[in-house]
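Lab manual, section 2.4: Encoding a predicted structure.

Procedure: take the sequence of the chain (503 residues), apply the prediction step described in section 2.3, and record the output as structure tokens. A sample record is shown.
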Amino acid sequence: MVWLTALIVVAAAGLSFWQYWRWTHRRLLELAAKVPGPPTIPILGNALIFMVNARETLDEIQKLHKQYGDNFRFWLGPELNICVKNPTDIRTLLSSNKVNQKGPSYKFLQPFIGNGILAGGSKWRPHRKIATPSYNKKSVEYFTPIFNKEAEDIARVFCRKDPNVPFDAYKDVVICTTQCVNQTLMGLSKEDSLNLYRLDEMVGGTRGLYDLIFKKMTKWWLQIPLIYWLTSYKRLQNYYIKLLDDFSSDIVKRRRKALELSTPDEDCMGIVDRFILSKQMSEQEIKWDTTTLFTTSQEAAAKMASGVLMILAHLPDWQDKVYNEMMDIVGGDGPVTSEQLKQLQYLDMVYKESLRYFAIAALIQRTVEEEVTINEGTITLPVGTSLTLSIHPLHRDPRYWEEPDKVMPERFMPEKVKERDPNAFVPFSLGPMDCLGRVYATALIKTIVVWVLRYAYLEPAGSLDNVKLHYAISVSAAGGYNVRARPREGNRNLRNGRINGLS
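Recorded output:
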């Protein structure tokens, strides 16, 4: 009898809370009802739809867009999510001060990188302002010699590969991008960069870290503290937190010691020095944002560069176009300048097609802080909505892209671009929270490609049709960026025997 009474009391309390929640959120529920979306189940809402592995998440979003159109809603428990794919609405929303905060999914990043530049919160804007000068065109110009040196080194690595054995280009390219980021944005010398504490673990562990965070985002039971504590995931989280702290602490310690001796010129100063000298950030905040900008710079740039190389390997005609144009403008030896990179139109087309096909930021999440209308005023997004901007589905939308699942660099020829909605291509986000490193990444990636093509002819390994994507924080090719490489005949550097005995 006591148990029955207790059960009735609990049920009554639950019903009362549910009614209270519906009353206090009546505006949200009213507006949500006007947006199409899948039917829900009690308590979980639509959470079961997204209980899939990382390779299937984007497919599920695509299916829902196909079924419900450019805009649809889904519920994760009591959390309203609205997905938007219309390019005009995406531009409007990303540029609006009404949705100028990151979405709730970013809270899962906070144990690792705090509440700074990437995760959002009150500190992202002043921290970003401090870091921004290190990413501008003038600073990138100063970084060009390092890009060239490291890119030439990685080109030599490609030439040493057995031309009959496929390899994942990312595993080599990420070493190059890591050294570039360390010697520019982190402000380290080459010697310091090579001797950073736990560097190899950091470079090799990024995907595992992203997978862990993504699992907690998408598996509701892992968000129950007791269950999370009882699983191996909590121990794994502690491992990554310690790894990130050890790594960033070593960088900051080295830069503090260097700053005691001299201060770099403003135009070529790294972000860590800027954080330290600003005196606006705590030691922990400096370490968190150092980790954030290290990882998002070297890992994302490596993925994008590897995507370009893989596309060139599979499209020999385009590889020839890029190579011939490159030889005419840049030549077969010597440093690559930013002015030369601007003239490489064929490389730019392949680069943009890679950004479309392998959209790094496949889904962008924001929180609606004030009501805002979309879809020509027919839909009002209520306050508190978790807004998901569907960049990957937009980049694969047949209304804007002919045969969207095929790799076709020619779609970025000037005449094709003029025919297409300019808002249909959003590779680096938009607005005040856009990608901080777009200029930096573009220069680094194109420099790597030029040097690799100078020394190596790339050949395919596997198929490029409908490449499976792995989505966990950022997007990558699930099976790796697999290519084969053989030295180019007639390269002067090869004839002079500069590449470890190759001739």
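Check your result against the sample. DSSP finds 21 helices and twelve strands in the chain.
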